[in-house]
């Protein structure tokens, strides 16, 4: 049993494929080695399974567009940037947007802002939207360009982190 355990440990310790030899010394003790000895024989070992992992890439903020042709060519969140850390003890942030061509207010287009799927600005035409009292921690900010009926024309999301002093410290 000891020999079997030792053999199992030897096999599991190697992450590469190597030849393993089993032998018996002059005292009758069984030994295992990776080099051929005079009293040893090659133990057939299976070829190890290998898996090639796909290369992971950092996700960029996605820009979602409606199926119909949009008159807008650019809609993006300028600030906060993706994965930004905001150090603001009062929890106030300002969301700044870029829209090209400019927002078509005459057609009823507007902007809706939500944080963690909670709408914080329902319909605004401003490209600089102040949001008060954001809790500490990581948040998903979503800006949507909406039409008169509230249907999303384009949207973009970013992750940001709010740092605030704790009253406990």
Which secondary structure elements does this structure contain, and how are they paired or packed?
Blueprint (H helix, E strand, L loop, with lengths): L1 H12 L6 E5 L5 E4 L6 E4 L19 E3 L8 E6 L4 E4 L5 E8 L9 E6 L2 E7 L3 E4 L5 E10 L5 E12 L6
Parallel strand pairs: 6-12
Antiparallel strand pairs: 1-2, 1-3, 4-12, 5-7, 7-10, 8-9, 8-11, 11-12
Notable traits:
single chain, mainly beta, Immunoglobulin-like, 2 domains, 6-stranded mixed β-sheet, elongated
Low-confidence stretches: none
What is the 3D form? Answer: elongated
Count of domains: 2
Structural class: mainly beta
State the helicity in percent bands: under 10%
Give, in order, the helices and strands: HEEEEEEEEEEEE
Structure in a nutshell:
The protein is mainly β and 169 residues long. It has one helix at 2-13, and strands spanning 20-24, 30-33, 40-43, 63-65, 74-79, 84-87, 93-100, 110-115, 118-124, 128-131, 137-146, 152-163. Strand 8 and strand 9 (118-124) form a beta hairpin.
